[in-house]
Amino acid sequence: MEPILEFIDVCFSYHSTNGETPALSGISLSVKPGEFIAIVGPSGCGKTTLLSLISGLLLPESGEIRLLGKAQGTSGANIGYMLQKDHLFEWRTVYDNVLLGLEIRHGLNQQTKAQVSSMLDTYGLSAFKNSPPSALSGGMRQRAALIRTLALEPDILLLDEPFSALDYQTRLEVGDDIGSILRKEGKTAILVTHDLAEAITLADRVVILSNRPARIKKILPLHFDEAFDSPLKRRSAPCFSEYFDEIWKELKSNG
Ligand code: ADP
User: Fold this and answer.
1) What is the pTM for the complete model shown?
2) Cβ of residue 180 lying under 6 Å from some atom of ligand 1
3) Does 194 contact ligand 1 (Cβ within 6 A)?
4) Which residue lies with its CA nearest to atom 15 of ligand 1?
5) What is the mean pLDDT of each run of 10 residues along the chain (255 residues)?
6) From the CB of 213, is ligand 1 less than 6 Å away?
């Protein structure tokens, strides 16, 4: 299967009046369609920079990024972003919030509206369609934000610490929820997180980055038996703590 995303020896530095800050060094990574990749690494190592490069907000200094088998600038790939804050507008109903992306892109029609209504239904939000976002719990808000992003049918979804503003219990529930939705929709997702358990419960592979400038220290594939088929169930799998230890050890090793 052809990769949906490829980093080929990508380097990137920030330039400011204070000088140069090298952020990424020799990053090579290949992601298959439908894969869920988690990126972990020390604070300030370059994780968000990596996402900005995928979305095209930043361009590589050297090396190449390919999306859908084409050079990034010509790929036409549709990239979705999910952030810590859900950015739902209180003055719009939940329904009008989830339609917002389509509205901005002039993509509103009977078919896209029906798709959004069906997602609200599938993911338990249809009873809140005409309510303001304040009527939703923290988890439901993130679900609404995800539906708004999925409505645009992104080829790749970038998740930048999307659950870190939530309290611990909600975070577990929402992680489970969002992870299951993304699996069901077959989306390719790249998650940046500092929460190792979150990475292990959600991802197919964990990419472990070094201190800045980030290089890939290790890519760890995760294999769970079928009995552990949801993020919450993965937490009780015997291999969970082994994966945790392996990533922790790698992060703590020099560099
Ligand atoms: P992470 O997401 O891993 O915490 P970032 O990708 O946000 O790290 O940042 C990597 C490094 O680049 C950090 O040291 C940060 O200070 C620096 N950096 C980020 N954005 C800029 C910028 N616009 N100008 C200069 N340096 C930046």
Assistant:
1) 0.91
2) no
3) no
4) 44
5) 94 92 96 96 94 93 95 90 86 94 90 92 92 92 90 93 82 84 90 94 96 95 91 92 96 81
6) no
